[in-house]
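Researcher: Sequence recovery benchmark, item below. Answer with residues only.
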């Protein structure tokens, strides 16, 4: 077990260092920060922002509890961040294996003493940590905004909401990692990952038009539906299980993909 953990940490450090040395990763982070900051200001202080809407309701004689304003902002902002992650994360995951396949180093990785699971988990942890690094400035903005809320926001709600965002990101990155292991083209990996995530994001629309068990099953597979549950502060074990299933499925399929490559080289 100690050897496996050591291998995972070695791959994790290598992958994370690669992101901090990649101009593309910084470009993605910069765009993410700019868009995230723009939507933060727009949702909080914009003409149609939550503060202006609360003031308008007060003028109409429909007072809004102060805590509702904070929770509305949290839900709207993290909903936008989830949609933004859907567009940005396939770019981060596209090179996890595709670049190594293109450079010919994937064969060396496949025939190394490292287990496929260790490599896949280490790579996933590396890219997920970089995404959390991308979220840090926006979380600081939120902390400043929530400190001004009166009454104070219950801590478990934003914690659960951000845990939901991290689980969503891990699911997208895990599935993207699997797709990246199938091709040596990073562009194709990004396109197919985005298409798959978009399908899983809007599958609830298909579920709403279906009846019976099929509709319920499709609705349960929706990333959007389960993400919204957590962002709203609802600790839904079904949503947690779904995200864990996507993460494990992506890692498992990636390991099998590399195992197939290893078998083909023997």
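Model:
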């Amino acid at each position: 077990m100690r050897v496996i953990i050591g291998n995972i940490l070695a791959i994790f450090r290598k992958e994370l260092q690669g992101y901090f040395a990649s101009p593309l990763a910084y470009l993605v982070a910069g765009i993410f920060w700019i868009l995230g900051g723009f939507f933060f200001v727009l949702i909080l202080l914009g003409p149609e922002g939550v503060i202006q809407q609360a003031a308008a309701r007060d003028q109409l004689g429909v007072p809004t509890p102060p805590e509702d304003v904070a929770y509305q902002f949290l839900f709207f902002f993290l909903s936008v961040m989830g949609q933004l992650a859907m567009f940005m994360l396939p770019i981060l995951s596209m090179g996890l294996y595709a670049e190594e396949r293109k450079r010919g180093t994937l064969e060396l990785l496949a025939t190394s003493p490292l287990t496929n699971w260790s490599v896949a988990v280490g790579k996933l942890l590396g890219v997920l940590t970089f995404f959390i690094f991308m979220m840090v400035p926006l979380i600081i903005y939120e902390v400043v905004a929530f400190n001004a809320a009166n009454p104070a926001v219950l801590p478990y709600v934003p914690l659960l909401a951000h845990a939901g965002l991290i689980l969503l990101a891990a699911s997208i990155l895990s599935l993207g990692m699997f797709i990246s292991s199938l091709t040596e083209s990073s562009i194709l990996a990004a396109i197919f990952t985005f298409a798959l995530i978009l399908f899983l994001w809007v599958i609830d629309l298909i579920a709403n038009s279906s009846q019976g068990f099929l509709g319920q099953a499709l609705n349960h597979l929706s990333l959007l539906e389960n993400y919204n549950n957590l962002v709203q502060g609802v600790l839904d074990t079904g949503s947690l299980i779904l995200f864990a299933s996507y993460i494990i499925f992506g890692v498992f399929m990636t390991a099998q993909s590399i195992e197939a490559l290893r078998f083909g080289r023997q």
